[in-house]
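Structure record:
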Amino acid sequence: MVVFNYLINFIEGFILSSFIAFYFDLKDKIKYISIVSLICFSLISISNFINEFDHFLLYILIIALLISLWITKKDKNFEDIIICFIAGMMLLIANLISLSCTSLIFNISTTDIYDNQQLFVFAIILSKLIFTFIAIITCAFKLKTNTKLPMKYWWIILILGLSIIFVLAILIESLLSNFMSSNMILILMIAIIVISFLFLVIFRKIQIENAEKIKLALEIQKNKYNTENYNKIVAISNQITEAEHRMMYVLMQLRTCIDNMDYENASIITDQYIKKVKSFNSMITTNNPYFDFIISRKINELIFQDIYVKKTIFISQNDIYNNKNFCDLILKIIYIFEINLDNSKELNLGISQESNFVLIEVIGRLTTNNFKISDEINNLIKLFNADFTLNNTKEIVTLKLIIEI
């Protein structure tokens, strides 16, 4: 029986060390399992020799696993503490299930199992099998803990885990012995008070951490918003610069005409420019400021090039329209039509919103029969996961996009 006890002690230590090694996927598993198995075997054997098991041995085993894990691993986090406690709980649960099953199978009370050597051996072997099964299942599904509290609060988790193990061990012992003294009840009450207090402390720490995460997320969002605004301002600035260049070109034409005393031509240029400016005054107003400005500028740029643009835009206010990539997509589509227009120089632009979708339609009579969109436009279409169709009928090309918003 002594040899059997030593064998069981070694198997128990081997299962505990193997569980930790495979759960955390340690580099040198064989070395870790060999050393920690011997440590656990020694602790369990010494405990058996002085006839002490229960709570204190379990605590010592958990602490030994934790220390060995931290020596082996480079980084330390709360998952280490939690999993070591889970290993101890699995050992307790395996013993409880084993004794309960043995009692049920052989119709004998749990207290009488200890007096029957054969049943006791059966219960021990069953316990180790159950323990092995639980360990394998746990490693297979590998618990994912999201605890991100700083390591300076490790003592909270440690005390909480020890308290839970303590309460669980007393309850299992009372269940198996069918006895609970008033002192045990008092100790349980104190332990539950400690657990409740520690739970509140942890809850508070999590609240503080969550508030910090929200603050950080808001800062990131703010920076992103500032970057987007900056890019939009740069784009608007470029559009204004282009308008200034056009104005300068017209003024230089007028200056040349005046210097040459060609007042008739100067009058014609002035009338043409006034006509174009009047067209420019027909701005798009959809309550999407960036979209309105960028698309209006593009349409007026086409007007300055004597391209007639028939626009039909029915959209409501939505963040997607002020998205730079969205506006860039429309601008690039218009441009690729613009450079391929025939002498009629007429372009239809339709943008409408229906429910959660926006429909973009561009129609133009083009000079090429082999019209293709650029890779840059294709990438933007993929970015918005848009449905895309391109039809070419008698030199009239129709491009349609449907984008979910």
Observations:
- The mean pLDDT is 81.
- Residues 2-180 form one domain.
- The CA atoms of residues 9 and 41 lie 5 Å apart.
